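Methods — Computational structure assignment.
A single polypeptide chain was analysed. Its primary sequence is given first, followed by the predicted tertiary structure written as structure tokens.
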Amino acid sequence: MKTTIFIATLILILSPARADEGMWIPALLEKHTIDEMQKAGFKLSARDIYDPNNPSMKDAVVGLGREGQPFSHFCTGGIVSNEGLVITNHHCSHSLIQAHSSLEHNYLRDGFWARHRQDELPNPGITASVLLRVEDVTEQIRAALDNAPPDSLQNALRDAITRLERQAEAGTTARANIKPYFNGTRYFLSLYKIYRDVRLVGAPPSAIGSFGGDSDNWTWPRHAGDFSLLRVYAGPDNEPATYSPDNRPYVPAASFKITTGGVQEGDFTMIFGYPGATNEYLPSFAIDQLVNVENPSKIAIRTAKLEIIKQAMDSDELLRIKYSAKAANVANAWKKWQGEIAGLERFNIAGEKRALEQRFEAWAADHPAYQGLVEQYRRLYAARQPLILAWNHATEAGTRGAEIMTLIASLQRRFRELPDVEDLEAYRASLLDEAEAFFKNYDPDTDRRLLAAMLRVYNSAGLPDHHIPASLKLPSPPANHDRLADRLFDRSSFANPAKLRQTLARLDRAKAEKLSREPLARMLDAINRLVDSLRPPLANIQARLDSLNAAWITALQKMLPDRHFYPDANSTFRVAYGRVAGYEARDAVYHGHSTTLAGVIQKTALSVPDYVAPPRLLELPRPDPLPVCFIATNHTTGGNSGSPVLNADGHLVGLNFDRAWEGVMSDYAYRPEICRNISVDIRYALFIIDKYANAPHLIREMTLVP
């Protein structure tokens, strides 16, 4: 029986990439993937998706980034008109909507819809990248490294990348970016036009765009109208330009047609976007460490935080307002980490990888260059384990434990500017502004309880003595932690808004030094020294793992020549495909593939704060049923938020915005039976724009097809 199970596991591991799995490089679709996509139902060609010389669907996709780091795309958007209109997620535009909101114009609460072009709101620092072409530059990189001395390989790599990027940009307004793929064994250059004038056009109120809030985060079924509208502007020549009232709407080479036909179970779906990071080729030791050490330690710390925050929110309505966003921020990764553990354990991913490693060692017996790789992994992850556990506590419970630590860290960085300050009054005013912004949503009593909870977590983690700063070490009983937290806060100017204001208003070098000698500041310094001591050994191990990962993926490709490997996500343009499908979440619990407005009404009746829809939405005449969201098997991750979801004809059917909790382990191992991406149905977005916002002029820009 054990032999049968082992063989079945090997068949799964050694087979080609599973149907629906993968984040594929568009430039390589014709060579590797398009046949499988067409077998799955896609009706067009690889050239329809990616053509560097003619208009194609890639030209209708934008990667949203920020000035200074435009290649680290935080979200994706789809162009839906010939006048640069972009549709993306509401949560992708949340910070923009918030920045434009005020007591007089609360766009988060009420929504925002520009009635005229001059009403569209600029967003300094936001960029929209349009991909021009992708080029494999692996051979050029290798040639540069072949001639470099072993002790200067990193410098040679950096110089080669810079040279190739500048060559690609020469004589153009484009920007080039080279990133490693397949654990650094291949390199691709992406050439973009990066537009720097991106304006907010429309957004539903948060009660629609974020309906479900933290209660529904990482879950299915969902009922969020998670969309917003932006517009990309260009100079008179349609080239990238900084904001100017004279700029014109960008004219794209292509835009997506929108279908009103909807989706059905089993329909082909395809996603374009800029997925951030995945780790599909980690060894079993990494998965074991993630499941048994890394995630549990972070979950325990955040559980303690959330308990304190929840107590505060339940005790006072003002504290609920102050801490609601903070609680959601803490809970976001906390919830995901638990889902990762559940999925990885459910499918025995570590066991599958151990089976692969056994197979690999047998193969490596005849390939001496790759012998010993598995043992090297074992030793490196064993060395990493105590370091990463200490790192998690020093950062999660230490520098980011009590909120006051973030204020102290920020102000101490600013204090170092003091010797060079020319306008002392302006400098003091900026410090006061920073402190006021912090205290606006801060409660000292809640924070001192957070500090006590973090001290308890730190001292119960089983860390070696040298990984606990002396100022944090406390014996039992737990009451000691409460007494220490009280004493630290009582003696702290940082935690006393009135006292801190007085000090900052008269700040000089002597007062700054006195603040930096306070007990809370000294505690933070001790934690930072620990973090600094952990950084070099962790970096050394990671550098050795990076080298090992490159050898590992190369060896796997040689051992499994018939398997089609896809590179891990790295915030570059990718294509994923799958099908609309429900799933069995757990025993006897099956989730269908779509939701409707009826579910919004049902949730609203629960009288839960996250489930409060605008009354007007529920009163509007509407089709019955009115679709809201759907799920599919597309392989996605962070960065895919806002990704256009297309049908077999290449028509827009929805916008990706999340994943179902049971399958969030897809960053490490994808399983089509459980991994689901969640999208808002484009028909719901059209309904909100047309009927709720009364903005049919925006729909008239779009091309609608049956």
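Note: Residues 1-132+221-277+570-706 form a domain with the Thrombin, subunit H fold (CATH 2.40.10.120).
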